[in-house]
Design goal:
The protein has helices spanning 13-23, 62-73, 86-95, and strands spanning 5-10, 27-34, 38-44, 53-58, 79-82, 100-106, 110-116, 122-128. It is 25% helix and 40% strand. It has one domain (5-128): 2,3-Dihydroxybiphenyl 1,2-Dioxygenase, domain 1 (Roll). The longest helix is centred in the middle third of the chain and has 12 residues, at 62-73. The protein is of the alpha/beta class. The chain is built from three helices and eight strands.
Length: 131
């Protein structure tokens, strides 16, 4: 058993693609039409293009949009992305206008920060401390 795909619900797939590729630096992997309105749209890390894909999934179902809104309101990230340097990524993303809800903080064995992906989600990034 392997993890090859995970998803985040997004308010608008085109806006999400622009943020996840243009700001975060992911690369588009798949973009297939699903009817007239939606797409099977995935992104990957350029560092691991054949690893797990992130599906930018429409939040069009009422349960999905309610779940997404509740997590955002409560300040709960929907995903975590590993980085090698949280402080460096915080500085880079802040320069690009990304809004952080939690600045970098040591949490015992790692450092984390949380940002708004502009698509209805909070995303945590983390750095594992050197052992």
């Amino acid at each position: 058993m392997r993890i090859r795909l995970n998803s985040v619900h997004v308010k608008n797939q085109a806006d999400a693609l622009a943020f996840y590729t243009g700001i975060l630096g992911f690369e588009k992997k798949m973009d297939l039409p699903l009817g007239e309105e939606f797409r099977w749209l995935t992104v990957v890390s350029p560092e691991e293009p054949d690893a797990a894909q992130l599906l930018l999934e429409p939040n069009s179902h009422p349960a999905a949009s309610a779940y997404q809104a509740a997590l955002f309101k409560d300040g709960i990230p929907v995903a975590s992305f590993e980085v090698t340097n949280v402080d460096g990524e915080f500085a880079r993303l802040s320069t690009l206008g990304v809004r952080f809800t939690a600045e970098p903080v040591d949490v015992g064995g790692s450092k984390i920060a949380v940002f708004d992906d502009t698509c209805g989600n909070l995303i945590q990034m983390y750095e594992v401390a050197d052992e």
